[in-house]
Design brief:
The structure is a single chain. By secondary structure, the chain is an all-alpha fold. It has one domain. Helices cover about 75% and strands about 0% of the residues. The protein has 9 helices and no strands. Helix 7 runs antiparallel to helix 8. It is elongated and about 50 Å long. It starts with a helix and ends with a helix. About 30% of the residues are buried.
Length: about 190
């Protein structure tokens, strides 16, 4: 895919900037988990409202990024390369359903490996139709999800608690790695001179 085609696709064009947004969201969402591991659990109501507020803020910032890119490169093409919702909607629905299941029935420690696997699968699939970098990124997230899953030791974790090992893998691969990847996408596809 050429940078010109990338900049014209309504789903792809702001992804570089959106990686920065979701890197921050993915890091901040771990605060109540690390707090619980440190013996300072958040109240249940705050533990529910906080991630919802983070996701809503992330979506709002992504809309601002879309507007920013539109001002830089003009209007998107009327038809995207691929309807991204057809890839991401099933991923998000499965993630939400299994998260609720793990929270209700346990073990909660598998929530981070689950999301690594699902988000990785979404990027791998999206990359099959768009840019090869997404395929590689998705494969890395899937591998990290497998590592995080095997790092969870349910017998060593108190009921309802996350796994410190899985959280560390999450922070590295769902937050820290997104910043340089977003910068790479911006440089290669958005800010081409």
């Amino acid at each position: 895919m050429t940078p010109e085609a990338f900049r014209k696709d309504r789903y792809l064009r702001a992804t570089g900037y959106n990686f920065f947004v979701w890197a921050a969201v993915n890091l901040l969402v771990t605060l109540p988990l690390f707090s619980a591991l440190g013996g300072r659990p958040w109240p249940d109501w705050l533990g529910l409202v906080y991630p919802i507020a983070l996701i809503a803020t992330g979506i709002f910032l992504c809309v601002l990024n879309d507007n920013r890119v539109q001002k830089m490169v003009g209007d998107p093409a009327p038809v995207p390369v691929v309807e991204a919702g057809s890839i991401w909607l099933p991923v998000l629905l499965l993630g939400i359903l299994f998260t609720v299941l793990f929270v209700a029935r346990g073990p909660v420690a598998f929530v981070q490996p689950l999301w690594l696997l699902l988000v990785g699968t979404g990027y791998l699939q999206w990359g099959n139709f768009t840019i090869r970098e997404f395929r590689l990124f998705g494969a890395v997230l899937i591998a990290a999800g497998v590592v995080a899953g095997f790092a969870v030791r349910p017998a060593e974790i108190a009921a309802g608690m996350p796994s410190l090992r899985a959280l560390v893998v999450w922070v590295v691969f769902m937050s820290a790695a997104w910043v340089p990847f977003g910068a790479y996408i911006n440089r290669k596809y958005v800010h081409v001179h």
